[in-house]
Structures are given as C-alpha cells and as structure tokens.
Amino acid sequence: MSKVDAFPGGKFDQLFVNLGPQHPSTHGVLRVGLTLEGEVITKAEPDIGYLHRGTSKLAEARGYHQCVALTDRWDYVSAMPNNLALCLAAEKLLGVEIPPRAQHLRVVMCELNRIASHLLFLGTYGIDLGAFTPFLHAFREREMILDLYEMLCGARLTYNYIRIGGVMADISPEWASKTGEFLGFFKPRMKEYDDLLSFNPIFLARTQGVGLISKEAAVDWGLSGPNLRGSGVDYDVRKSDPYSGYDRFDFSVPLGKAGSCWDRYYCRALEMRQSVRIVEAALAGLPEGDIVAKGVAKTVKPPPGEAYAHVEASRGDLGIYLVSDGGPSPYRLHVRAPSFVNLAILQEMLVGCKVADVVAILGSIDIVLGETDR
Amino acid sequence: MNIESLVADLAAKVPGVVLAADPSYVKSYPTMRLSSAAYLLPAASFLKERGFDYLEIITAVDWLGPVSPEGYTRGGRNPHPFSAPEAPALVAVKNPAAAYKPAFDMLWCLANIPARARLLLRLEIPREDPAVPSLTGLFKAADWQEREVFDLLGVRFEGHPNLKKILTPDFLQGHPLRKDYVHVKDRYDE
Amino acid sequence: MGVILERLPGAVKGVPGAGVVLTTADVFIDWSRKYSLWPVTFGLACCAIEMMAAYASRFDFDRMGVMPRPSPRQADVMIIAGTVVKKMAEPIIRIYHQMPEPRFVISMGSCANCGGPYYDSYSVVKGVDRIIPVDVYVAGCPPRPEALFYAVLKLQEKVQKMRISKGAGATPQAEKGPRNVAA
Q1: ipTM of this predicted complex?
Q2: How far is CA C100 from the centre of its chain?
Q3: Dihedral sign, CA of A367, B57, A373, A311?
Q4: CATH superfamily of B1-19+30-66+99-180
Q5: Which of B29, B82, B186, C148 qualifies as a FRET site for A233, CA 20 to 30 Å off?
Q6: Which residue in A has a C-alpha nearest to residue B91's C-alpha?
C-alpha cells in the first residue's frame, strides 16, 4: 500500500524537504532530509547529533556512582532500565551479589517504567496521526506512575534509584498498596485504549500495511525491542539473557506478524499487559532482606577488567560496555543505545513511501533522541 | 549451541582466531581474539553462516592511558574546563595490571537469536592511522555504529559506503573519545 | 466575560451605568498579550517531557492561555526545554529569529540555564543565554510542571510591565539592545 514502484505518467521534479530539527513529530531534535519525486520519497537521510552531550567522555571523569546519574538522561522517558544496565555492568566488574529483595524491586521499577514509557508512546503516536484524546488519557495514567516514583525516590523523570549494589530506598507498605490501586485502575484502561486508538478505523488505515519491515531486514539492521518483535522475531533480553531475576517471572513476549507500523504499536500495547503481570507477581512475592549488597564502598574501584551487560529497556536492547583500569572512574563506557541502532533503518525504510507516511513510520519506531545521541 | 565446538570450527577455518587467554575476558561472554585485521571478514562471515546474524555492538577502547583530570576535564584546581592549552597530561601508570599501550582494542559482539548465544570478537590495532575492514557488507547494523566509532575515536572502516561524522558538529576537531583529545575552543565556549 | 475592575492592574476606570471601561492602551495591550502566550512546541531533551506533561491532563496549561503552536511564526514564547548542544545552537537562533516580536524565552532546566550536569562537556553550550536573550529561568533537573507554571506567571508579570512608547522599555528586545548573534 505504501510502496509505490512507478509513477503512472510523466516525471516529477525532485524536491528536497527538510524535516526537523524543530518539528512537532520528530519527537525531539531529529533532522531528516527527504528527497521527493512528487509525493514519493526517493532518498532519506536522517541526521542526528542535535542532542549529543558526550556522556561517554564525561563518564571518564566521574565516579561510578556519579555515572548512574548520567544514565538517567539517556532515555529520559524510561530511566530505570538505564540505571539498571550501568549498575549490572559495574556489578559484574565488582563481582557483588545483589540481594533478592533488591532484584525484585529493580524488576518492579523497570516494568512500571516500561508502562509509563509505552503510555507516552501511545499518546504521542496518537497525536502524530491526528488523534489528540488518547494523549490526555495516556498522560493521566502516566502521571499516576510518576506519582509512585515521586513517592519512592522524589523524582519524576530522573530517578537515580537503582544504585551499584542494590537500590536507593526500600518501598513502604503505603507505596505497595498505592501501586496495587494503580494497577487495579490501569487494567480496564488498556481496553479503553484499544477502543480509542488501536482498532480505530482511521488509525488502522494510517498504520496497517505501512512501513513494513521484514524479519530478515529487522535482524540485519540490528533492530531490537518492539520494533524487532513487531516483525515477528522472538528476541527479548529478559528471556534470552535473563538478568536481575527475570527468569523467575512468568510472562510472555508479544510478537507481531506483518512488521507494519500497527504491529509495532500493538506489540507495545500488549507489552503493557505483560508488565502489569510482572509487577503484580513481583510485589506479591517480594522477599524480605537487604536492599543493598554488603561491601559496596562509596568510592567504587573495580578491579581492572571489562564487562558487557545488557537489559531490555523500553525501546530495546540497551547494552553497556564498561572498561575499568582499577581507577575510581570508568576507563571507557560504551552504550549500545537501542534508539540509535533502530533509527538507522529509516534511511532504507522511507524510500518508496509517500511523504504523508513519514510521520507514521517515524513515530512507530519510537525513538528518544537523548538516547540516540547520548 | 556449543561454544567450544564453534570456536574449534572457527579456528580450523580461520587460522588467525584465538580464544582469549581468559575465556570470559569481557565478563561474562565468550571472547575471541583475532590476530590480524585480515581475519575479521572471514571470521564474521563464518559466524554469520552459523547463525550469528545479529550484530549487537561495535566499539573500541583507546588504551593510551588515563587522562589527568586537569587535562581535558575540569578538576578541583582547574577553574575552567577548557583552559588546558596543550595535550592533557597522562597520569603515571598507577596500575600495572591495566594494559596501557598505544593501541586501540576493537570489539564486535555478534548474537545468535534462536540459540540465545553471543560471541565477542576482539582485535588490537595500532594507534597510528587505525583502520579495520568494514562489516557493512555483512550486517547493515554496522552502518551507523561504525560511523559512531569513526566519529568519536577516529578508526577508519575500509569499505564503508558513507563514512562521515554522525554525532559531533562539523566544526568540532578531533575525536573526543581518544585519550589525548584536547578541546579546541569554538565560538560557543565564550 | 466578567471583569473585576478592582483586580485589573493599571489605570482602569469603569464608567457607571455603561458597558464602557476606560484604560490606557498599555494596560489593555499587555492584559490581552499576557493571557495568550503561545509557546512554540520545541522540546530538546528531558525537560520536554515535563513540558508535555504540563500541556496534558493534570496540569493543563490551556487555562493560562498557553497553547502550543507548531510553528515559530505563530508563537510568542520559546521554552528552551533541555540541553542545548553546539550542533543545535544554530537552529535555535534561527527559530528565535523566526518568531514575531515581542518574543520571550523561558530557559527551562539546569542544562539550558548553565549546562547543568554537562558543565564540562565538549559539545554542550553552557547556557542558552549565550546565544539568545532569556526572560525567565527555571531551575531543576528537570523542573516540575509546577515550576514551569510559575515561570509562565513570572513572564506574565513581566509582560504586564511592558510599554508601547519608545524609550520606556518598549519590548524586551529594545531593553536588551541589539545583539550580534554571529559573534
């Protein structure tokens, strides 16, 4: 539907359209240079770096604990998995064992954050395609999750909650009961989103069959997260390389079929249901015990070595490659940012699409520029 | 998937591959070291045939040595971040265990999704005029990741179709993640 | 629309028995201007998410007359929400100059104020006030939507003080004088 092979008559002049870096639908400061022939895109050049803050270099001058604060600002829509990835890598270097209660709390926070992140996606994707109401609904629920985080650690977006060796604070009984209340409120709402957006005929017409990614292309371009699973590839770091005790929880990985924008969208909608399941199970079976491992100093100096740890962040496979030379700050920090890798496919995917579909495709990849540019 | 048999197969096929002395040198994944850049493409294409078709990361480490905090970045006694006129001083080697040397250590991580296995490839290249073959012919995921390494560390990827800056602005000189990088003041630094 | 004359600032006189209000042009223009501050939808980083939250259900900026406009040519305010990096500096200056005068700038968050956690980064502009004039600064990393709300109220106070006569601080730009943006 979206791919147009030939023009039905005559030739068109080439037209260069500059999308961004200030554009309401680029979700930040992405610039895409589009070359059009008529309405069909013949060349697309994504241009990133408008939010490149040099985090890897800054980490080389900061202590390990300080680096956790830097990670919050990569994927600022869901900061907990970022914290977790760095902490996992640092803990591998240090060789500390994390108490089970801290592991469960980490899982709870990461999954709540996945819900918050997918809600933001759902709302903004609706706006991209002309539906404003789902945005207000999604933000109502998102604010409730942010309230929970605020109650827990005092921050709404940049939590710095998961620390090397454990977590910052234990949850209170009120927090657990408020979370239960929220989940009870949230579960029927997911049906509401389906009615409002997922199966809305206009929405379906804009997204189904648009922006197709085949299984092979998705793997070849190194996509991860819902973008990869929307094409039907069963790859989830939580299952394939379990961390932080995810293997103890029972959940399924939703897969798409066609790899269209709608499949990617609906994968996220279904993932929220699985996250609710995990949060409920983790809170019900929360073990007693410490929340911080013993023997993690205030100035961490891991022995020389290298570690690679990756987590399933809300946008995909977030990998941290950390090198220590025995000093108080990382010798090298490399981030495999899912948004960065996912975005690269845009240059191939947009070619042959109509210009009206650009926003639908761009939105369905769900990038966060803070993570793309780091 | 049995990593040992895969490694044995790979070593038989591509003679320049050795398993790193400590098998989990990069914690906690099997790591293989290439003895020369010439073996990268054969090794990668062999692994791709065996199902390792998901390129996870490409990165590099500059092993020149730690930079003094008074050099590039602001320390306690240095009031302005960009006041260092010359190259930042390298700290005297405090840690004999760390392998400081004028070299880049490249890292590729390949994953086999159905088998739930991943394998890391290492390669040491000299710091002067660093270059390695590009993997863009085998994995499209290499495109931007190689451009990132080129931009931040200055490693040339031979055969890359579009090797140009990706993250840093055009007027920024040098490669920021190199340890001897000195920031040249531009119009936005006062 | 009911107007409580006692609450209107400036010289306002209601004429008894008639639907007529006498006031100065300054007060009237500023009054209408300050309740229709339209920001350009321009998010840079983390703070943009809080800015979106401010437009959304709970905080609802619409009740202050703050409605996001996608084009700078229709906007009065630019909210610099996030880290300004050197590659983005040039587009920001261009967007600023595309906005019609009088234009205002709210610098939201530590990064836009002074560089914040990236004070020693090679690619971050240490404060957006190095490239464009700023009217209100909001502290925080990121600031809460309420803090942005307070900034809008402060900006309204500032708008209320504007005068149309020359030499009396006609616009913030006139107050600040010309600026060599290429420097």
Answers
A1: 0.84
A2: 13
A3: positive
A4: NADH:ubiquinone oxidoreductase Nqo5 subunit (3.30.460.80)
A5: B29
A6: A327
